Amino acid sequence: MNVWWEKISAEWPPALKLWVARGLSVALGLVLAITLHYVLYRMGLPSKPFIYVSF
Q1: Which of 1, 40, 44, 52 has its CA 20 to 30 A from that of 13?
Q2: Within 10 A of 9 (CB to CB), how many other CB atoms are there?
């Protein structure tokens, strides 16, 4: 199966492929880290605002 990115990347030098792979890896890592941080933050919040719990 020859997909479009294999056709494009076949012409790239190996150093460029390495930098593109590293850049995509860092970008994906940041997206996953931000998502996980947000999920853990939301899980730590109370389901009801604390002011209503005392009444």
Answers
A1: 1
A2: 13
Confidence (pTM) = 0.67
Helix (H, G, I), strand (E, B), or coil: what is residue 13? Answer: coil
- List the pLDDT tens digit at each of the 55 positions of the chain: 678 778 888 888 989 989 999 999 999 999 999 999 999 998 888 777 666 665 5
What are the CA-CA distances from residue 51 to residues 43, 46, 47 (Å)? 19, 11, 12
CA angle 45, 49, 51 (to 5 degrees): 135
